[in-house]
Design brief:
It contains 4 helices and 20 strands. The protein has 274 residues and is mainly β. The chain has a single domain, classed as Hemopexin (4 Propeller), CATH 2.110.10. A 4-stranded antiparallel beta sheet has the order 5-6-7-8. Strands 9-10-11-12 form a 4-stranded antiparallel beta sheet, with no helix packed on it. A 4-stranded antiparallel beta sheet has the order 13-14-15-16, covered by helices on one side. The longest helix is centred in the N-terminal third of the chain and has 9 residues, at 2-10. The termini are far apart.
Length: 274
């Protein structure tokens, strides 16, 4: 699947998009701050993505206002699991988690340390990234959490591996099951303006420009908060998160959806309030 992924990306060539690099939080430090505000407008089946002129300076508060004007916290991490073509999401902010789908909250909000008390204390709050894939029948979730250059793999029953020392810290990480099998999985990780795919943690350094992904707007080719990748209907469906915005891509084409996350998931307002 990694080879297929790389060939799919190369087929689109490079878009010559601008690149950026940023520092990330280390273990025991607060989660990386929020960055620039984006405005995503969906017109028919096309997306118009723009950065308002007033947002030319970085926003270091980690708090952004959606289209509604309500200030909310950016997610520290967000990831997706595709269960029979129904997406379930796990989101983390500070020391809390919530599991939900587009219809509402399934579990939480709750404290990370209370749901997974076996995790080391460093992984109880201010996490950088999270990913979920399935490890067996019945859609058993296997999680990967990262913080700085540390990563840990676990299930609800306990730790599977780690903490592991990574080559570098990532801005976002996703893991997905290859069609018809539970293992091995494929990881997709981003940092700055580049990404890398791999099969096992600890992962390598990023090595391929995000701008080489066909159909990805320039605003989502650098400084992302998180990413998520799932296989749906035989092809990769990728979500790119930045501040309060999400852009979904499949087969090099924008997937029409509500880009403003507060409008998409209004039931998470209390979870995201500063």
């Amino acid at each position: 699947m990694i080879g297929v992924f790389q060939r799919w990306v190369r087929a689109g060539g490079t878009a010559g998009a601008a690149r950026g690099q940023r520092a990330k939080s280390g273990v025991g430090q607060p989660h990386r701050p929020g960055r620039w505000r984006l405005l995503v407008a969906v017109v028919s089946a096309a997306a118009v993505v723009a950065v308002p002129a007033a947002a030319s300076a970085a926003n270091n508060s980690g708090i952004n206002s959606g289209a509604s004007g309500v200030p909310v916290r950016d997610f520290d991490a967000i990831t997706t699991a595709n269960q029979n073509n129904v997406w379930k999401h796990l989101a983390l902010i500070q020391d809390r988690y919530v599991i939900f789908n587009d219809n509402g909250i399934i579990e939480g909000p709750g404290r990370i340390r209370e749901k997974w008390p076996f995790l080391p204390a460093d992984f109880h709050r201010d996490l950088d990234d999270a990913s979920v894939h399935f490890s067996g029948p019945g859609f058993r979730w296997r999680y990967t959490f990262t913080k700085g250059t540390s990563a840990i793999i676990f299930e609800d029953s306990g730790i599977v591996a780690g903490p592991l020392l990574q080559v570098q810290d990532y801005d976002g990480i996703a893991s997905f099951n290859n069609p018809g099998q539970f293992l091995p999985v494929t990881y997709f990780a981003v940092r700055g303006s580049q990404f890398v795919t791999f099969a096992n943690l600890p992962g390598p350094a990023v090595n391929t420009p995000l701008s080489s992904i066909p159909g990805l707007p320039e605003q989502f080719t650098h400084d992302l908060d998180d990413v998520s990748v799932e296989v749906e209907n035989g092809s990769l469906k990728m979500s790119f998160y930045r501040d309060n915005q999400r852009f979904i891509l499949q087969n090099g084409r924008f997937v029409p959806d509500i880009g403003d996350l507060l409008m998409k998931w209004p039931f998470l307002l209390n979870f995201r309030l500063p």
